[in-house]
Amino acid sequence: MGGNDNQSDITTPFDPSVSVDPFRDRPQPELAAVRGGEDLDWDKIEAYLRANLPEHLAIEGPFEVLQFPNGAANLTYMIRFGSRELVLRRPPFGTLAPGAHDMKREYKVLSRLWRKFDRAPRAYLFCDDAAIAGADFFVMERQRGDVVRGVIPDSMRDQPDVGKRLGHSLIEAMAQFHLLDADECGLSDLGRPDGFVARQVRGWKKRWDLVADPEHDEAMCAAHARLEKFVPSPQRVSFVHNDLKLDNCMFATGNPDRVVAFFDWDMTTLGDPLIDLGTLLNYWPDPSDGNVARGGHPGMEKMGLPSRAEVVALYADRTGLDVSLAPWYEAFAQWKTATVLEQLHYRWKVGDSSDPRMESISARVPGLVREALRLLDGLD
Asked: Which domains can be identified in the chain, with CATH numbers?
C-alpha cells in the first residue's frame, strides 16, 4: 500500500532467542520479485486496468509488477504504469475460510472512508470477474512512509523517545478511527453490530474446527467455553478494523508522531471497538512478558514502546470507554490468533500455500492458548 507496505494478516513467529538491536539491524525488504507460485495473468490484468482505471489517474507508460512479500495471506502487489504506482490486492490461492479475504468489503470501505479518515488509502477499482485474476481483486493508491517491524526506521533513529511516540500516535489514530460516525462515512450498512462479539466467538470456533490440530484442540475448546461465558456487552457501536497492530500501519517518514495509513481492511465492520484494543494488546510486548513472545517481530520488546497498561489507559482517556474488561478482549485476540496461525499452516499442509514460513507458523499456538486461559482465569 505504501512505500514500506506490509499488508500482512498475521505476523511470523517470534524467536526470543534471537538478539535484535532495533537501532542497528535492517528491516526486511518491502518490495521483491513476485514469489514463485503467486504470479497472475499479468497480460490480462494489464489490459483490464488500462481499460477500466479512472481517467484522472492518467495510466500510461510500461507496465511492471513487484510484490509486497511480508504478508502471510492476502496477495498484495505493487503495479506500475510508467511513473504511476498502485497497489493490487486479491485473496490467497486455495480454499478460503468463510467470510475471510473479502476484497469487495475492503474496496467498499476504502472507496468511501478516505473522505473522512485520512489514514484510509483510496480505492479506485473493484473487479469480480474471476477470468481476469482468478478471484475478486481491487486496486488502490500507493502511499509511502515507514513501517515498523521491530526495527526503528533510519529516518527516526536520531529522535528521542521514538518507541513511546510511535505507541502514542498509533493509539491516537485508533481512537480517532473508533470515534468516526459510520453514517457520515456512508458505511452505516457495513455490518450487523447487534450481537457482534458473540458472533465473533462462535464464528472463530467454527474456523478452528475446520483446521483443528488434535494436540491443541482440548485447550482451544476450553478457552472458547470461557470466552462464551464472559462475553461482554458493547458500550458503543464503532468501526472495527479487526487487525490493528503496529506493523499494520504506516508512519510518516521521519515522524513517529504521525500515522499516515492503516493496512488490511478486508475484515472491517461495525461492532465493539474494544475488539481492536484486544488485537493491539495481543501483539504488544511488555516488560512483564519475560521469555513469552508477544511482539511478533524480534526487537519490538527493545523499542521503548509504552507498556500494555499504558496502552489501555491512553485508549480509555482518548475514547472515554470503560476498559475494565480489556483482559477478555486480549484473551479473545490470543485465541483468535492461534486459530489464524493454524489456518495458515493448514493451507501450507494441503498445498494451497507455497510460502515456506507457513510450515512452522503454528508453533506459537500452544503459547497463545495458554496465555488466553491465563487472562480468562482473572475474570472469575
From this structure: 158-377 (3.90.1200.10)
